[in-house]
Amino acid sequence: MKAVALTHYLPIGDPESLFDARLPKPSPTGHDLLVRVEAVSVNPVDAKVRAPKDKVEDNPKVLGYDAAGVVESVGDAVTRFKPGDAVYYAGDITRPGSNAEFQLVDERIVGAMPQTLSFAEAAALPLTTITAWEALFTRLGIDRDGGNQGQSILIIGGAGGVGSIAIQLAKLAGLVVIATASRPQSQAWVRGLGADHSVDYSDALIEEMAQLGHREVDFIANFSNTDAYWGVMAELIRPQGKIVGIVENTDPLDLNLLKSKSVTFAWEFMFTRSMYQTADMADQGHLLDEVAALIDAKTIRTSLGQTLSPINAANLRQAHAQIESGRTIGKLVLTGWG
């Protein structure tokens, strides 16, 4: 089968950082589906895993943590899907990724693809949707049914893939949403998704929030840079408020800044369930099914921003470079194998 792989961890400008490969087609057993991949999207985690390091893979390693496709065959323990079903999923970071014509994925972390979306539109959703959903409803404990109606949330990184979904989910839950966005295009994007206010990433964030009448917020979801915003978040969060982050810190975080306000801080990592085979692992598949229903009801929409075709090493290198630039609006998807 066709695939895009790496053996050495190199700067994305190096043509060997990602290369076209031919690999054996896998076979499913147990809870696995064998999916014929039709579209994939690229996330910051792809670039982080591929980032230069002193390591060499003995066998070609396939990245990719978002896909939409069609079930080709199933393992003997599969109960939720059958060959021919259209599915979407984010996969498992401990297993070969989606940048291949065929991929094995555990049915418990797979959802039935929204019926109203193309493969490209669906592939934009899984990783960011799971991350946003778990960040808001599991880690921050926001009530999906409106129990926090009228409370406020600051979403840092509003125009990115996770932020684009989080804005929509937070509005569904009845929150007042303030999203950071630095450029006119990204500000228009977040407002188009339903954000009540957009604010700049600049050093004047606290002052901008005050001008909006939000000197404090009930929740903060940081989908950008934990280190850069730690002090700002400590100042803006309301006493007994909650903060969630998804980007690992590079320097020690001073938790004492949160103590006097009794603030809760939580990490969100959407691969935790599959990585540790947690008892609630199947919740991610059910979550994706719920989101598909919301999509088909036109309650929320895909965050697809740009599409490249076909899926090959050259286009994936271009996509990684764009992700590393930090200027992507929405999601970047590759479709078709050429």
Automatic annotation (TrEMBL):
User: Which InterPro entries does this UniProt record tie to the protein?
Assistant: ADH-like_N (IPR013154), ADH_Zn_typ-1 (IPR014182), ER (IPR020843), GroES-like_sf (IPR011032), NAD(P)-bd_dom_sf (IPR036291), Quin_OxRdtase/zeta-crystal_CS (IPR002364), Zinc-ADH_QOR/CCCR (IPR051603)
Q: Where in the cell is it found?
A: Cytoplasm
Q: Alphabetically list the UniProt keywords.
A: Cytoplasm, Metal-binding, NADP, Oxidoreductase, RNA-binding, Zinc
Residue stretches making up the Enoyl reductase (ER) domain: 13-334
Q: Where is this protein chiefly located?
A: cytoplasm
Pfam families referenced in this protein's UniProt entry, alphabetically: ADH_N, ADH_zinc_N_2
Q: Which NCBIfam families match?
A: adh_fam_1
Subunit: Homotetramer.
Q: Which family does it belong to?
A: Belongs to the zinc-containing alcohol dehydrogenase family. Quinone oxidoreductase subfamily.
Recorded protein name is: Zinc-type alcohol dehydrogenase-like protein
Q: Species name for this entry?
A: Leptolyngbya subtilissima DQ-A4
